[in-house]
């Protein structure tokens, strides 16, 4: 009984320094960039109900604009964060030969420091906007920093609430990924122990799956991240075949499911409630999870030709170096800019769809231009801001 509880599955650790192929290295970089790129469009979603959950009902009539935005932002693009967690878990597990203390200290420099800097920057930017009547109304109407029914602005915060915003719940809301990833990195020995023991593995993944299925979110642990970060570790430790798809992972079949489920989920989000009542919400949530799984398989195994072509283009490789800058710098700018743009173009036909497409592209372009300039003028500061990425 003792050996049954304590002995790890030795096959998981037979080759701790196993390296990935050059193609998969490029593939990781490709999907990291694409995921960050798509994230800006997800946060540029501008329908009536801006905060998207798997079960979100848009609260609008079905049209070409509303269908397209929901289909993309709350369907096709939703695999990107799980993809990043899998990549993060895989790459972190790849370096088990390094001492835990050394790796943890490095993560404090490459994750925690940029997190605090970008959180402070987003806070200061929003606080500055509140100093002017026009931009103050945009901040208030966005509800991004709302803390209760009366306090819609950072200027209304107590000092300890400001501190909490800076450290735990940043105004740049996308930074939750770094916060959660850092915690998973610190907890890595415990996660790896669970994954490496036969019985503990099944219990652990069962719990992680339930947390993910229920979209369970805590400040320190987030259901979707925990499952996929752990899955990335498991893939690396078991030497799972990430080069070619087996029969059960045929990307053509999963791609059909991916597109079909995304379209069906979108239609039900607009038209399902009158026919299904409240049961539409769990149906949407389950379909959302299937969209993520099918999207991961389709993207990873079905887009190799696209990866090869893009990673052969010098311009694309150059752009991909700014993945972290795009991630860290786009929000809350994209949310504030959306409402600002609306005040000028709301008389233009299909202005919301044009804004959904063009505004993220504009912001991405500006961030890349700023990042390229900053990297050229002050590479050391750029290195601090990005945790050493893209140098």
Structure characterization notes:
With 391 residues, the protein is mostly helical. The chain has one domain (2-386). 69% of the residues lie in helices and 0% in strands. It contains 20 helices and no strands. It has helices spanning 2-6, 22-43, 64-73, 80-93, 100-129, 133-142, 159-167, 176-186, 188-196, 198-213, 223-237, 251-271, 273-276, 280-302, 304-311, 314-320, 323-329, 333-345, 351-377, 379-386. Mean pLDDT is 91; it is low at 1-17.
Number of domains: 1
Q: Please state the CA-atom Rg, rounded to the nearest Å.
A: 22 Å
**Beta strand count:** 0
Low-confidence stretches: 1-17
Secondary-structure-derived class: mainly alpha
Q: Helix-strand pattern, N to C?
A: HHHHHHHHHHHHHHHHHHHH
Through-space gap between termini: 51 Å
Number of helices: 20
Whole-number mean pLDDT: 91
Helix content: 55-70%
What percent strand? under 5%
Shape descriptor reads globular
The major β-sheet equals: none
Show the helix and strand layout.
Elements: H1 2-6, H2 22-43, H3 64-73, H4 80-93, H5 100-129, H6 133-142, H7 159-167, H8 176-186, H9 188-196, H10 198-213, H11 223-237, H12 251-271, H13 273-276, H14 280-302, H15 304-311, H16 314-320, H17 323-329, H18 333-345, H19 351-377, H20 379-386
Helix pairs in contact: 2-4, 2-15, 2-17, 3-12, 4-11, 5-8, 6-18, 9-10, 9-11, 10-11, 12-14, 18-19, 19-20
Short description:
Helix content is 69%, strand content 0%. The chain has 391 residues and is mostly helical.
């Amino acid at each position: 009984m003792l050996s049954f509880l304590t002995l790890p599955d030795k096959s998981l650790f037979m080759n701790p320094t196993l390296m990935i192929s050059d193609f998969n290295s490029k593939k990781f970089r490709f999907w990291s960039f694409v995921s960050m790129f798509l994230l800006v469009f997800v946060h540029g979603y501008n329908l009536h109900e801006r905060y998207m959950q798997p079960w979100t009902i848009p609260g609008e009539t079905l049209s070409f604009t509303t269908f397209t935005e929901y289909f993309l932002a709350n369907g096709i693009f939703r695999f990107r964060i799980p993809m990043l967690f899998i990549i993060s878990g895989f790459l972190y597990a790849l370096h088990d030969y390094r001492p835990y203390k050394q790796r943890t200290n490095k993560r404090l420099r490459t994750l925690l420091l940029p997190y605090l800097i970008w959180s402070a920057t987003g806070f200061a930017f929003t606080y500055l906007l509140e100093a002017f009547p026009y931009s103050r109304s945009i901040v208030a109407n966005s509800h991004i920093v709302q803390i209760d029914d009366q306090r819609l602005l950072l200027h209304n915060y107590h000092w300890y609430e400001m501190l909490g915003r800076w450290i735990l719940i940043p105004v740049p809301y996308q930074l939750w990924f770094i916060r959660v990833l850092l915690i998973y990195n610190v907890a890595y020995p415990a996660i790896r122990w669970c994954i490496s023991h036969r019985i503990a593995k099944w219990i652990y993944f069962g719990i992680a799956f339930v947390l993910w299925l229920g979209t369970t979110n805590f400040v320190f642990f987030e259901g979707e991240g925990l499952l996929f970060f752990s899955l990335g570790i498991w893939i690396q430790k078991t030497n799972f075949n990430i080069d070619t798809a087996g029969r059960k992972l045929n990307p053509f079949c999963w791609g059909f499911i991916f597109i079909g489920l995304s379209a069906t989920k979108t239609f039900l989000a607009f038209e399902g409630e009158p026919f299904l009542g409240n049961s539409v919400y769990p149906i949407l949530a389950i379909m959302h999870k299937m969209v993520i799984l099918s999207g991961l398989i389709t993207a990873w195994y079905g887009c190799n030709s696209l990866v090869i072509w893009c990673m052969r283009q010098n311009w694309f490789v150059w752009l991909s170096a700014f993945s972290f800058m795009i991630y860290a710098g786009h929000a809350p700018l994209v949310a504030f800019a959306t409402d600002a743009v609306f005040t000028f173009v709301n008389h233009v036909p299909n202005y919301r769809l044009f804004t959904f497409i063009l505004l993220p592209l504009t912001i991405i372009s500006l961030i890349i231009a700023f990042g390229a300039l900053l990297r050229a003028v002050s590479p050391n500061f750029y290195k601090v801001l990005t945790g050493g990425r893209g140098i």
